[in-house]
Amino acid sequence: MTITPEQIDLWRSSASETQNLEFKEAKNQYDTKKLCRYCVAIANEGGGHLVLGVADRPPRAVVGSEAFPDTQDIAEKLFQWLGFRVDVEAVTHPDGRVVVFIIPARPKGTAYHYDGAYLMRSGEDLVPMSEDQLRRIFAEGQPDWLEFPALQNVSAQDVVQLLDTQTFFDLLQLPYPTDQTGVLARLLGERLIVRNSHGPGFDILNMGAVLLAKSLRSFSGISRKAARVIVYAGESKLQTLSDVTGEKGYAVGFAGLVQYVMGRLPQNEVIEGALRKEVKLVPEVVIRELLANALIHQDFEVGGASPTVEVFSNRVEIANPGEPVVPVERFIDGYQSRNERLADLMRRFGVCEEKSSGIDRVIEAAELMQLPAPEFLTGHKRTIVVIHGPRSFRDMNGSDRVRACYQHCVLQYVLRKQMTNQSLRGRFGLSEGSSNTVSQIITATIEQGLIKNDPNAPDSRRYARYIPAWA
């Protein structure tokens, strides 16, 4: 492949650097160790191009690079250092010499390392891949946990006794078959069960059990995957009021799980007009979407852990096993599931929304009710979402306000709009007299590298618009 100046200009016009594209100025020389590390990281992320001689900030001017005058020599050295081949081309652009490293994708089931570090990119930095990410890579091409049998060589009668087939057909809005053969045929078609390869019966796959089990306790290998709901007396874990573990499969038990959690939430008194009314700490749409996410996007390979809901007097924390596939700061606009077939079935059951829209709804609901912005966190082998109860703007700290500003900006961007001082005032329920306060929040969010001025907006503070920093 020959890289042309026109291709360089096309890359420069990209809205932002991507997994497959990295720009570096490198006018004179470029550190070979850093070069090796970037080649490894880009290969681990699916391959792409490292471009030297182009500024990495818009408008990405071609500054020219004198690095690596002998492209064949550096290509040979990279092969010796890395163990995989990287092609190198020098492109004569009208504005200067550009050096392009064409980096292949790693083979399936393999990750590359340099000096023992399996690298990936995180913003401007190169970081080691997590244990969770490496395990997923090395398991590529192997059967997924959900595709393994939970029970083997059981009879047709056992299948319909162990799985809630009536609710299965109800969720799909299909009439229940007139005979057992029709029921089994549908389960086989969805690969929730398979015919046993050695006996006359059927294998119930983990997918079928985790979704449709009448009782997860009937399946010893997945009983620990049941959702757990813990309710505390106050804002800490000192006093536990209840600790209950669900029994039903995720699909057949989802509506009951949502209602159970809603029934355990504290109530707040609000005044609407002249009337006082009791409302739940968190709206049902938020609980529903986050519970669905926790069930669907968990890492089933993490042993001894299950989706957990913890209810406090002032917040709800929902956690699932496994670190997220998508960075937490991209939850609103990004989508990728480690359990795509499970996610597809749950969508068809009506349990969750279309791809990536669930978190959007959570943020929209928080803004509509002027709640503090949800927190998306990663812990050791788990992902946590914290939903805070009502708190006035005055009682929000700086971190709360910046987080809300960033989430509002991303949500507006997803909706093909831009955040303004006015729109952010509306998110916080503030009057026009609070413009200076909101400007300070916007400035703090810019300084943290989360948002930036829209380069296409008028050059005026009054009419300024803002977009996410990664846009």
Automatic annotation (TrEMBL):
Pfam families documented for this protein: HATPase_c_4 (PF13749), SLFN_AlbA_2 (PF04326)
Residue ranges of every copy of the Schlafen AlbA-2 domain listed in the record: 17-129
Taxonomy, superkingdom: Bacteria
InterPro entries hit by this protein: RecG_C_sf (IPR038475), Schlafen_AlbA_2_dom (IPR007421), Schlafen_AlbA_2_dom_sf (IPR038461)
Protein name (Swiss-Prot/TrEMBL): MloB
